[in-house]
Hints:
11 helices, 2-enoyl-CoA Hydratase, Chain A, domain 1, four-stranded mixed sheet, globular, 10 strands, 2 domains, Lyase 2-enoyl-coa Hydratase, Chain  A, domain 2, alpha/beta, six-stranded mixed sheet
Amino acid sequence: MTSTHRAAQPAGDGVRVERPGPHVVQVILDRPQALNALSTELAIQIAGILAGIAGEESTRAVVITSSSPRAFCVGADLKERADFTDAQLLQQRPVIRDLFAAVRQLPMPSIAGVAGYALGGGCELALSCDVIVADESAVFGLPEVGVGLVPGGGGTQLLPRRIGLGRACDLLFTGRRIDAGEAFRLGLVDRLVPVGHAEQAALDLAEAVAANSPVAVRAAKRAVHAAFGVELPTGLEIEDAAWQTAATSADRREGIAAFVEKRKPRWTTS
């Protein structure tokens, strides 16, 4: 499936928003001269955009990509931070936390389309998404310990959940970079595609998600995240609540009718 981009929606310096389809939103990091380093201003912009998208009932999937093939995002803007006092660094902290929370709190599925460097906060930005699509140029790493820091965008929590404790500790404690192939083998990357195809593959995946019932997909996302790490009986209760939400919706009735009539569903709830 090929997506036709609509005109970009102004979103401020460093980030653009495009709507390649009626139910898919693409957030494009567009600070190529800094390899999309996350300055305070850029973090505020992205968080604000995502908060707005979260309230859109018509949006069924969100894709985060970069305008540059060189880098998805290289993490925090260390040039900006170079002269920060401890107090200034701590003042910036809520802004950075809000950025990653805005990704994780999207009610619809989120997909990272990664090409080039995804380091530090850039790696965490991808990890904050539900699915990571990467091309073979992608390079991942959490190098914070090498500059006297700890990953602070969810890296110490999200990475072990994806690849296991020991493998995560390897990457977290050494700060080493891994190529796309190793990332895919470890489970950090969900879909690996040829160089230059990450964006389109992510958009195609988003369109496939958007073709399904928005009520069911959102309920499934809530169930997956709410139940992750809890005991199985609790998780099954969370799943049952999600099932009931979908089962009693107009989407379920439309889905069954479309199946019987051998046509595509016409979802009206979103």
